Amino acid sequence: MTGTKLGRRGFVVGAGLLASAPGAVLAAPSKPRVLIRTNHGSILVELEAQKAPITAANFLRYVDAHAYDGGSFYRAARDGTPGGGTIVGAPNPNTHPFPPIHHESTTKTGLRHVAGAISIGRFDPGTATSNFFICASDEPYLDAHPGEPGDNLGYAVFGQTLEGLDVVRKILTLPANGKTQYAEQRGEWLKPPAPILGMRRV
């Protein structure tokens, strides 16, 4: 992604992690809920399994495999406004990879990167795997913007935070002077990362 804000703020999806579109994972209820436990508190998210079925199913596949247990929120991408930005989470580094999933654009799902939205990280469209992020504030530039130059497909929102937005905002304020190989992400990598103690459907 070049020549756009997406390119400058691209989310790391994790080297070598590949994920598939497992349609069989979804089950009742139509909006599954997942509790994300961190050392700073818990975050309850509700997934849009009907509007973004591929992305929600992929996330649930990792949750059910306990892949996020021992993972972390490792990046705080602040947008320059008070309390604004996103926190980026990754699974345990020993996670077994799944193949990548199809990109579900916000223009097709109708979902938006509003405060509390949970979305999937990617490089090019169709490369999304297990890394995800949660918006601490409205971040409309992360939505798809057809007609703009470069990669204008945005990221794929697949749910919303029901409880724990204060935890998201707390993690966003943690020290972020960790090392990164990505020049555009300097000053965003948490040191230390915020551990993900576990994730379960509730």
Q: What is the total domain count?
A: 1
Beta-strand segment tally:
8
Specify the CATH class: Mainly Beta
Superfamily at the CATH H level? Cyclophilin-like
Averaged pLDDT, please?
A: 88
Q: Describe the global form.
A: globular
Question: Which blocks of ≥5 consecutive residues have pLDDT under 50?
Answer: 1-27
Total count of helical runs of at least 4 residues: 4
- How would you classify the quaternary structure? single chain
Q: How is the largest sheet built, in terms of strand order?
A: 1-2-7-5-6-4-3-8
Based on helices, strands and strand pairing, what is the structural class?
A: alpha+beta
Per the CATH scheme, the topology name is Cyclophilin
What composes the largest sheet?
Answer: 8 strands, antiparallel, barrel
Share of residues in helices: 10-25%
Rounded to the nearest angstrom, the radius of gyration is 15 Å
CATH architecture: Beta Barrel
SSE sequence, one letter per element: HEEHEEHEEEHE
* Strand percent estimate: 25-35%
Question: Ends: how far apart?
Answer: 36 Å
